[in-house]
Amino acid sequence: MILPIVTYPDKRLKTISEPVTDFNEELHTFLDDMYETMIKTNGIGLAAIQVDRPIQVLIINLPNDDEEGLQDKVNLLEIINPKLTHSEGTTSYQEGCLSVPKFYEDVERFEKIAITYQDRHGNACSLEADELLSIAVQHEMDHLQGKLFIEKLSYARRKKFEKEYKKLLKEKKR
Ligand code: Y12
Ligand code: CO
Predict the structure, then answer these.
(1) Is residue 41 within 6 Å of ligand 1 at its C-beta?
(2) Nearest-CA residue for atom 22 of ligand 1
């Protein structure tokens, strides 16, 4: 089932998500719906709060790093209750978000990270990430804390964003 995506400036995106305690059939169906929704909307990452569920769940499916750039489901990561265990360096990348459509901006983040998390069955897992995966994990983990990438912009860039986004919303209404 395709789920509606909550978009900025909806206040629900500010909600701090709660840990998952039940790794049951309902969670599995929800994860499948998140995947379907992310693929349908051309996303590479999605957090549960973006589809109005304040639980610590995120999914990431990066395209293959080759000419075709296929988004292979075998590379799908389902990350539940993540905790950052290591971070090093800084890097910058032009980010986008399904909850902030049509806006991309450079954001500074850790270059490399390590996390622990649980999979859909509640098994303990760990992940070391660099490059695009590191950025995607940090972007999605921010959603679990009610934070959007636009909050990491400088004052001047944020102002520019608010002006451009307001214009976009007006055009959409017409
Ligand atoms: C690097 C940086 C950020 C992330 C987080 C995941 N971000 C996304 O998946 C963003 C996807 C996105 C897709 C859009 O396309 C449609 O909605 C059809 C989009 O919309 C437009 O620009 C029209 C905006 C963002 C991971 C890795
Ligand atoms: Co996002």
Answers:
(1) yes
(2) 102
Distances (CA, A) of 68 to 14, 30, 65, 71, 103: 36, 29, 8, 9, 24
Superfamily classification of domain 11-173? Peptide deformylase (3.90.45.10)
Domain boundaries along the sequence of the chain = 11-173
Identify the active-site residue in 78, 95, 105, 140. 140
Name the residue among 99, 102, 74, 112 with its Cα closest to residue 149. Answer: 99
Categorize the per-residue pLDDT at 54 as very low, low, confident or very high, splitting at 50, 70 and 90.
Answer: very high
Which pLDDT tens digit goes with each residue over 110-135? 999 999 999 999 999 999 999 999 99
Instruction: Point out the ligand 1 atom lying closest to the alpha carbon of residue 107.
Output: 2
Contacts of 137 (CB under 8 A, 6+ apart): 58, 60, 79, 82, 113, 115, 127, 129
Q: Is 162 a catalytic residue?
A: no
